[in-house]
């Protein structure tokens, strides 16, 4: 995804990345990166904190049957590659 950083054990988050959060914290207002979610809404969704950003509209995509089959084929190919990799790592 564009504009989203990926973190891992070898590429951890840096303290400097929290500077804007610290500046915002004492004067918290909703914006494109921070919004309120009501307790009842959280409860209704089983307290799942993966709440979609209400400031970003989701783009709807439409595909032809041939395109969908291609996407599905690529997905199966990637799954097969991962399964082969796991099988090779687990084999003595």
Which shape, going by the Cα principal axes?
extended
Strand content: under 5%
Radius of gyration: 20 Å
Summing up helix and strand content along with how strands pair, one would put the structural category as: mainly alpha
Task: Give me some keywords for this one.
92 residues; mainly alpha
Please tell me about this protein's structure:
This protein has 92 residues and is mostly helical. It has one domain (17-53, 63-90). It contains three helices and no strands. The model has no long low-confidence stretch (mean pLDDT 89).
Please describe the topology of this protein.
Layout: H1 19-25, H2 39-44, H3 65-90
Summarize the structure.
The protein has 92 residues and is mostly helical.
């Amino acid at each position: 995804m564009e504009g989203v950083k990926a973190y891992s054990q070898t590429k951890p988050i840096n303290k400097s990345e929290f500077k804007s959060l610290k500046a915002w914290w004492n004067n918290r207002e909703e914006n494109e990166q921070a919004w309120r979610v009501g307790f009842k809404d959280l409860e209704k969704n089983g307290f799942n904190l993966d709440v979609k950003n209400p400031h970003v509209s989701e783009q709807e995509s439409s595909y032809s049957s041939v395109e969908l089959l291609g996407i599905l084929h690529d997905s199966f190919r990637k799954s097969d590659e991962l399964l082969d990799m796991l099988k090779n790592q687990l084999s003595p």
